[in-house]
Write a structure and sequence with these properties.
The protein has 334 residues and is α/β, with parallel strands linked by helices. It has helices at 17-28, 30-37, 67-70, 88-97, 107-123, 140-147, 162-174, 178-187, 196-199, 202-216, 235-243, 303-332; strands at 8-13, 41-47, 62-63, 77-80, 101-104, 128-129, 153-159, 226-227, 246-255, 260-269, 281-288, 292-299. The structure holds NADP nicotinamide-adenine-dinucleotide phosphate.
């Protein structure tokens, strides 16, 4: 294996739950990562809003100026884990313009601007990788792109949002009403103080759009998704349905051949595999032409699990960086 002298350097845009989970994940296996890569991996610095905020993990350098990352010629890979549409959209465009590899976990941004950003990355000969944007710790995009490249996905169905699954599990199993279960999800750190993106179905819809683009090789937009959330479920309805052996789950599903792409509550029989996915877990079932029905479940969020998915993308981006360095070395001798 080649041994490259120079570090592969990473700049983080954001150092919150995912950014810190990523660094924890790297610290847990740093030697392993360097030997797998054949070069040391170094987190150069991270962009934050408040450099004085207390963090679980220390980084040598934090900055509040995005240019310290986007315009640093030593940084090879920019990792966007700040969230939201702006300024993340501008920063990713600038990073690609500066010919850096880009990794992002930002589902909202990708659902809205994914095809445009991918095209920009392609024009600049750089990668835009986003495994963590769909189902956090379940490595599904790489599985579809590589493991299933000889098969054809026909249907997608799953539980794509852990917060709403946690709330629904409590409503079904403990008889809590919606406001109580939501408050407990917030206290446990699973739901935001402003929970609309999760409970309205928008978070699941973003992931469905990104996944459908990978599975069906068609244009999909957020406006194509028929979407409803869990806010209007009440305990009386749940009790009635439970008597019939059905429980509510927020299901994202797509059958493009029938023009169906939707997120909403479905009442599933208790025997359905998806009914057994409880708490903050996510799950996905794919129906494919050759393999038939495939099923995954696991953590859809959380610093370490999502950080691990980001790290997988960083490893792939780092290999591209090293290959480029090798090509330049062969052409120029430096
Ligand atoms: N959390 C998860 O489990 C999870 C799972 C899958 C995907 N994701 C995605 O990962 C991304 C990050 O999520 P997160 O949970 O890590 O978010 P978070 O905990 O809120 O962290 C966001 C980080 O970005 C920084 N930031 C935000 N806006 C900024 C701005 N305008 N300028 C400079 N810094 C800014 C914040 O700085 P301060 O620390 O100074 O406030 C913070 O460090 C999101 O796109 C999310 O959808 C998250």
């Amino acid at each position: 294996m080649k041994n490259y002298q120079d570090d592969v350097r990473v700049g983080l845009l954001g150092f919150g739950t995912v950014g810190q989970g990523l660094v924890q994940g790297i610290n847990l296996q740093i030697d392993n990562i360097s030997s797998r890569l054949g070069a040391p991996l170094k987190i150069q610095r991270a962009l934050v809003q408040d450099a004085n905020k207390k963090r679980v993990v220390g980084l040598p350098e934090l900055t509040t100026n995005a240019r310290d990352i986007l315009e640093d010629p030593d940084i090879d890979i920019v990792v966007e884990v700040m969230g939201g549409e702006q300024p993340a959209y501008d920063y990713i465009k600038q990073a690609l313009g500066q010919r850096k590899q880009v990794v992002t976990a930002n589902k909202l941004l990708l659902a809205q601007h994914g095809p445009e950003l991918k095209a920009l990355a392609q024009r600049n000969g750089k990668g835009l990788l986003y495994e963590a944007s769909v189902l956090g710790g379940i490595p599904i995009l790489r599985t579809i792109q590589h493991g299933l490249c000889g098969d054809k996905v026909e249907e997608v169905k799953g539980i794509f949002n852990g917060t709403t699954n946690f709330i629904l599990t409590r409503m079904v199993e403990l008889g809590e009403d919606y406001p109580t279960a939501l408050r407990l999800a917030q206290e446990a750190g699973y739901a935001e103080a402003e929970p609309t993106m999760d409970v309205s179905g928008l978070d699941a819809a973003c992931k469905l759009v990104i996944l459908c683009r990978e599975c069906f090789d068609l244009e999909f937009h957020l406006k194509d998704v028929t979407m409803s959330g869990i806010e209007h479920l009440d305990q009386r309805q749940i009790t009635l349905e439970k008597r019939q052996g059905r429980i509510p789950k927020l299901i994202a599903c797509a059958k493009p051949q029938n023009g169906e792409i939707q997120v909403g509550v479905q009442w599933l029989p208790e025997t359905d595999l998806l009914s057994r996915v409880s708490g903050v877990q996510n799950a996905l079932s794919l129906k494919t032409l050759l393999a038939g029905e495939l099923f995954w479940s696991g953590p859809g969020a959380g610093g370490l699990a999502t950080g691990g998915a980001v790290l997988g993308d960083i490893m792939e981006a780092a290999e591209r960086v090293l290959t480029e360095r090798d090509t330049v070395f062969q052409q120029t001798g430096k």
